[in-house]
Design brief:
single chain, alpha/beta, 10-stranded parallel β-sheet, 10 strands, about 40% helix, about 15% strand, disordered N terminus, binds S-adenosylmethionine, binds 6-(5-methyl-2-OXO-imidazolidin-4-yl)-hexanoic acid, binds iron/sulfur cluster
Length: about 325
Amino acid sequence: MSNVQPLQFVKSCNSRSTTDGPWSVDAVEALFNKPFNDLIFEAQQVHRQHFDANSVQRSTLLSIKTGGCPEDCGYCPQSTYHDTPVEDKGLMALDDVVASARAAKENGATRFCMGAAWRGPSDNDVAAVLPMIKAIKDMGLETCGTFGLLKDGQAEKLRDAGLDYYNHNIDTAPEFYADIISTRQFNDRIDTLHKVRDAGLNVCCGGIVGMGESRRHRAGLIATLANMNPPPESVPINTLVKVEGTALDHTEDLDPFEFVRTLAVARITMPTSRVRLSAGRETMSDEMQALCFLAGANSIFYGEKLLTTDNPENARDNALFARLGIRGE
Ligand code: SAM
Ligand code: DTB
Ligand code: SF4
């Protein structure tokens, strides 16, 4: 039995101070509204109480099954609803996945995250990824999977094969969700997050900003995450990567300082979680990324590809870490 009911996540986005979790949307929005310097200072103080401020965790992503996804997520280049340059590919062979994980480990990543463009895996799909998880775990890497909605019993199978983390993003505030995705409900995601938690897996759950949402929606996203009991161990904060052909391709750019604020608010409200500066780094300057680390981000995706889009090359990240005196872990 989970100790948190799905409704709580939705309730947490009401404006009243909720009894279901420590963070009301009003309180989170009040953090967003602080003067920038005050907000970053507070985030850095919280960060230093719980983490080494000069250490950043590195995860490498691999898309083990690309394209052809039946969901209509407005941001996603892998959706069949969008005409994008992404080609459909079947599930990768075990040996190729293992080779990719070995290379990631040699480059210094400590976690390897496999992503699949499924609405959710069939039982055959789960059976096919189990040997991949086991082989990567045996290599001494932390393992993470993001395979979509799970059915009863699947999280336990993934756990038993050696999966450490399951990534399943809520993406945005509950009240903005239907503007972005229509083929599933917000609470479908929450149900899977409960299955993941109940199986004893670590939860990696975050969202995307820059999809045309309001600051209130961003506060709702963060409040929902922070009110999870416990909050996710990893919180990826993605900025929308605009891919030609997707529904959100022409969305107006988010003010970069608003993105930094989102990271800082995540840090303050989830003090012991790894906050990951996720998609969107490819087009960020080094100065912008330094601000993100100052705001409390302490994890990145490391490696030249995310799932289908570009991420900074390792050499650029290594040089940035060296300039900032950051240790990769
Ligand atoms: N299909 C599975 C699912 O949706 O859970 C796993 C893969 S899906 C691509 C993983 C996550 O990538 C999404 O939840 C979303 O947060 C993120 N994502 C996808 N496209 C993105 C984009 N264009 N920009 C930023 N983040 C994106
Ligand atoms: C997450 O929050 N971001 C990653 C990972 N979890 C799976 C995915 C980002 C995908 C960006 C678009 C692409 O490369 O296809
Ligand atoms: Fe499919 Fe996941 Fe992309 Fe949505 S985000 S279209 S579920 S791959």
